[in-house]
Amino acid sequence: MRSRNPVFSRRGFSRDNGYAGFNTAPQAGGPAVGTQANPYAGGNPYAQNPYAQQDLQQGAPPQAPATTGRMTMDDVVLRTGTTLGTLIVTAALAWALLPVDDANINRSYGIGIGAALVAMVLAFVQSFKRKPVPALILSYAALEGVFLGVVSSVVDNRIASGAAMQAVIGTMAVFAGVLIAYRAGWIRVNRRFYGFVMAAALGFVLLMVVNLLFAVFGGGDGLGFRSGPLGIFFGVVGIILGACFLALDFKQVEDGIAYGAPKEEAWLAAFGLTLTLVWIYMEFLRLISILNSNN
Prior knowledge:
The chain is mainly α. Helix content is about 65%, strand content about 0%. The N and C termini lie far apart (about 45 Å).
């Protein structure tokens, strides 16, 4: 099962060779692929591992999945660190080189918005790709970093001093909290969880688009979804949705490693985690801005 939204559909590996997270459709010549993290559940090493089923279809003798060239947790950590590192470096450069004083704020903000638009295009291109393209992913991270650096500088210097650091700490706390809860088994990611999160995310995004349209054509704050008490409520909802996305990301990484996804798929994990962390950071930054403007 995979969302038809090109960004949400990134939550799965090897679209071209059979493995995709939360896919319960039967594989050719074998049982359905379930949502369990352990591909050897039930005692049959080929009951849920699509890679092993491919070996059977090709006439290969039954054997455990080869580890050579397969994705590992170290691969995911390295690629994610590289992607986030690129984003952080460009964000710091944008903060330092694109001032947001009265004389330069329009130019700096224009550059930031332009970088965000190009980053969005690159993210959609990667989402439609059948395989990860590291150059696309790192380019997205670099441009997204420029946007985050400018926006963070604007909020920190003109709205709420220290907001950027508070948003970073909040993002790290959500990441750590979800990881601990997931590893402890307090969060169970299954088909129902996936469906709920995707439906909630679609509704959230549609509401924000409608609010933006009303703000652009009607002036003011639109329907008020991003200011006042409603803005605070939707800011909290956005952070909770980001936490749910993190749980989906952790599940996909766990399943990808268990099923023996190719090593290159670690870039998809890095891409997904980066998108989610950017979402959470932006929601924290927006929430902090609203809280300070209300004061």
